[in-house]
Amino acid sequence: MSSIAWKGSSGRILLFRRPFHEYSLRGRVMLSQMPLSVTAGITAFLILAFFPETLLNPLFISFLLSQAVILILCLAVPWHRLPYPSFLVIPLLDLVSICLGREGGQDSLTGLSLMAVFPVIWLCASGLFPKAAVAISFFGPLAIIWVPLFLRGAVSGQDLARSFLLPVMMLGIGVTVSVMTLSMVRQQRDLEEKDSQLRVVLTGSKRQERLLNTVLDTVHLGVLAVDAEGHDILMNRKQRKHHQLASPPTIEDPNESQLLVFAADRTTLVPTDQRPVRRAVLGEEFTDYLVWLGAGAEQRAISTSARPMTDQDGNFAGSVIVFGDVTELVNALAAKDDFVSNVSHEFRTPLTSILGYVELLLDDDDDLTDSQRGPLEIIRRNSERLLTLVSDLLSSRNGQLLVTPEAVNVAELVRTSVTAALPRAAESGIHLRADAPDRLEAHIDAARISQVLDNLVSNAIKYSPDGGDVVVSLRSEGGHMVCSVSDTGMGMSQQDQEEVFAKFFRAAAVRNSTIPGVGLGLSISKAIVEAHGGRVSLRSEVGKGTTFTFAVPVQN
Predict the structure, then answer these.
(1) What is the mean pLDDT of residues 30-34?
(2) Cβ 503 vs Cβ 520: under 8 Å
(3) pLDDT digits over 118-163, tens only?
(4) For the ranges 18-27, 135-144, 534-543, which has the lowest average pLDDT?
(5) Which residues contact 325 (CB under 8 A, 6 or more apart)?
(6) Which of 555, 551, 556, 553 shows the shortest CA–CA distance to 474?
(7) CA end-to-end span of the chain
(8) For the range 445-448, what are the long-range contacts, defined as Cβ-Cβ under 8 Å and sequence gap of 24 or more?
(9) rRNA-binding among the record's keywords (predicted)?
(10) Contact assessment for residue 450 and residue 459, using Cβ atoms and an 8 Å cutoff
(11) pLDDT at 89
C-alpha cells in the first residue's frame, strides 16, 4: 500500500500521505482494521435505517460493541512494546465478532459472513505463520457458519453443505493473498539486498570520487577530461585557473575557439583545429605540445599532453588532457640560449681577428720557416674549427641553420670520414671500418653531412675507451639515404637517451670520467639533419654499445 486518495471539490486530498510501511506499527494495525470498522459502521447505519428491530438483538449489539472495542484496542495498545506477532489477535477477534454479527443480523441483512474477508486478508497478507493463516482462512469462516448450527442442535447435511461454499471461497482468497504476499516479501528482500549492495557501491564510488577530486586538486597540473563530443567531464582546480587565464575579459563563458591560445611566438593565435583540446577530441595522442595561454604580463607557457579513452568495445569515448605550467622552464631555456648567443657573438670578433692576422702571416711565405709555419697552421685550423662551432651555435639558437644541397656521392663522404679517423681509432685499440656501396648519390650539403659523420664517428671512438668495433654503414631505403654509426662501447641508460640531443648534455658516467667534450656535437648534428628534412634516432644498451642512425631524403 503506497497511498490512498480521493478527490473532492477542493481538489486532490491524500488520506495516506506516505507509504504504508513507513507508518508506526500502531498506525499499520489501525489502518488494517479500518476497512472492517467502516463496513461495520455502514452495516449499523443500514440496520438503524431499515431494520431497527434488529438493534434489539443482543448478539447484533454485541457485534457492534465488540467492533468498537477492537478499534479502541488498535489505537490504545502499544503494539511496538509487545511481541511482534501479537497484533494478529485483532483479526482473530474480528472473526468472533463477525460470527456474533451474522447470527444477530442475518434475518435483516444478507452477506454479513462476507465481512470475514477482511480478517482473512489481514492474516494472510501479514506474511506471518503462512500455513496457519491459510488454515484459518478456511476454518474461521466455516466456524462462523457451523458453530451456531451446532449450538442450535438442529443440524442436517443440507444445512452444512448449504454454507460450505463461503469457506472454500475464503480459502481461495487466503491462498491467493498468501502466495502474493510471500512473492512480494521475496521481491522486497531481493530489492533490499540489491539496495544494500548499491549503497555499498555508491558509498565506495563517492569515496573514490572524493579521493580523486582531492588528488586532482592537490597536483600542480591542470587536468581536463572530455567526452567524445567535446563536453567537459572533469576539470580540476588548477585547470579552472588555466581556463580563466585563457578567457578573454569581455566574454563571460567563452568556447574553445574564443580562448586566448597562442603559438610559440606568443602573438599568433593557434587555429581552433590545432588547439590541444580540439586535437584531443579528434582522438589525437600527443606529448609536450607547447602553447601560451592568456595575454600580456600574465601570459603563461603551458605544456600539454593528451591520451584517448575507449569504452568496453574499444570505441573512442573521450580524452584526458594534462596542462603543465612550464613558464619558468621556458624562460630559463631562453635565458640560457641568450647567454650562449651573447658569448658566441663575443667570441666571433676576436676569432675573426685572429684568423685574419694568421692568414696575413701565412701569406708571407718568404719570411716564414717551417718551424714557424707549423704552429701558425695549427692556430688557423683550430681557430676555424672554433669559429665554425660558434657560427653553428648562433645558427642553431636562431633556428637559421642553413644548408646548400647539391648532388654528392655520400659513400665517398663516409669513406673519407672513416679514413680521417683511422689513426685515432688505432690509438684507442678500435677496429674502425666502413660498410658502404661504391656510390650512393643524394642532394645534400656535403660539408654539413661530413660534419655529422665526423661527430658521430668521433663520439663512437671517444665512448669506447676499452677498444672494440665501430662500423659506419650506408644504404638507400625508401627514398632516403640512411647512415648508421655503431659501436661496442659504454652505451647509455634510457634516461640518458631521452636527453642526449639536448645542448650541453653529458651523461653522468661521462662527466665522472676523463673523456673530453662540452655536449654540443649531437645537438648540432641533429639540427643539421633536420635542416635536410631528415631525422636522427639511436639505440643503446649500457655496457653493450650504441647505434646512431640518421636518414635524409635522397632528393632535397
Answers:
(1) 91
(2) yes
(3) 999 999 988 888 899 999 999 999 888 888 888 877 677 777 787 7
(4) 18-27
(5) 220, 242, 300, 301, 302
(6) 551
(7) 85
(8) 445/403, 445/404, 445/405, 445/406, 445/528, 445/532, 446/406, 446/408, 446/413, 448/403, 448/528, 448/531, 448/532
(9) no
(10) no
(11) 93
Beta bridge partners of 261: 293
Residue with cell 600539454: 304
Beta bridge partners of 316: 310
Q: How many CB atoms lie within 10 A of CB 540?
A: 19
Whole-number Cα distances in Å, 308 to 234, 278, 290, 459: 14, 12, 19, 40
Instruction: Report the chain's mean pLDDT, rounded to a whole number.
Output: 85
Residue 525 grid cell: 648534428
HSE-up of 94 (CA within 13 Å, CB side)?
33
- Residue 470's identity, in one-letter code, is V
Strand spans (E) along 119-275 = 222-227, 232-235, 261-262
Give the pLDDT confidence score for residue 306 in this predicted structure: 93
Polymer length in residues for the chain: 556
**pLDDT digits over 430-461, tens only?**
999 999 999 999 999 998 899 899 989 988 99
* Residue whose entry in the numeric block shows the C-alpha cell 597540473: 221
Reported in sequence order, the residue ranges of 213-281 that DSSP labels E, i.e. its strands, are 222-227, 232-235, 261-262
* 3-class state of residue 287 by DSSP: strand
CA distance 194 to 86: 31
As to burial, measured by CB atoms within 10 angstroms (0-12 exposed, 13-18 middle, 19+ buried), residue 125 is: middle
pLDDT grade, residue 508 (50/70/90)?
low
Does residue 90 contact residue 107 with C-beta atoms inside 8 Å? no
Q: Who contacts 96 (Cβ-Cβ below 8 Å, separation ≥6)? A: 66
Give the CA radius of gyration of the chain.
49
Which has the closest alpha carbon to 462: 484, 495, 487, 445? 487
- How far, in whole angstroms, is CA 436 from its chain's centroid? 52
Least confident of 276-285, 372-381, 430-439, 448-457: 372-381
pLDDT at 365: 66
Cell of 183: 512473492
How many angstroms separate the CA atoms of 335 and 341, rounded?
10
Tell whether the torsion through CA atoms of 523, 525, 526 and 527 is positive or negative.
Answer: positive
